[in-house]
Amino acid sequence: MGKTFLLAITILATIIVTPSLALAQTTESAKTNQKANQQNQKVATLKTKAENEINRRLVSLNKLTQKIISIKKLSAAQKASLNSQIQSEITALTSLKTKINGDVDVATLKEDVKAIVTSYRIYLLYIPKIHLLAAADIMSETAEKLASLSAKLEIRIQQAQAIGKEIVSTQATLSDMQNKITEAGQQYQKIESAVLPLAPAGYPGNKTILQSARVLLQIGHQDLQAAWKDAQKISQDLKLLKNKASSTLPILPATPTAGSTASSTTQ
Q1: Of 31, 118, 129, 166, which is most buried, counting CB atoms within 10 Å of its CB?
Q2: Domain match, 180 and 75 both
Q3: How many whole angstroms from its chain centre is CA 218?
Q4: What would the pLDDT profile of 60-98 be if each residue is shown by its tens digit?
Q5: In sequence order, which residues have a C-beta less than 8 Å from that of residue 172 and are 6 or more positions away?
Q6: CA end-to-end span of the chain
């Protein structure tokens, strides 16, 4: 009877424990599968984000090539160098995109995704750099147009001086205009010299150079505004001088009178 009882207890224990073990194994397997699914989802999400960010940068870089073409002051060699740099960034980003697509480890994937921002600086450096050069180019071109205008105004001032008109104040305004135009041209040269050499590898150390260039651009813009106001004042002054000259001239008859004609004939 003792053996029978022991056998019954063993069978009972087996009946109770076996389902419990099966349940535990099933639960653990479910947790493992859930963890794997979560990791796969995380990897997929990171890859999608990376692809979107890289594609966005590739589009922006390709647009920069058109912006560079429009910059008139840069030499052909300078434009070629900038386009070569951009092409290198495009190639590197495309390679990174391929690598990210093949990443299976979350830690590695995270580092590669991080590199999109930290290693390329498309929006932090490259785009601001080209846009600053383009804006400075427009500033320089405007300065040249104003310089041409100042030369024409100077001729008119000299003509007024030749007939004895008081042009001291107008001449002073012209000098101020010419100085402002020169200063704007100098700002362009400073911006070009400072910004052209900037590279992503130097960021964020070279961030202050970008900030200084923006200040120079603003100063140059203010110089041109002041020069334009001077040009307007000079034009007004010359117009007033012309009106005064007209008012001091004798009023002549539209046609000679009979008496004046006879007198002229007699002489």
Answers
A1: 129
A2: no
A3: 14
A4: 999 998 899 999 999 999 999 999 999 999 999 999 999
A5: none
A6: 173
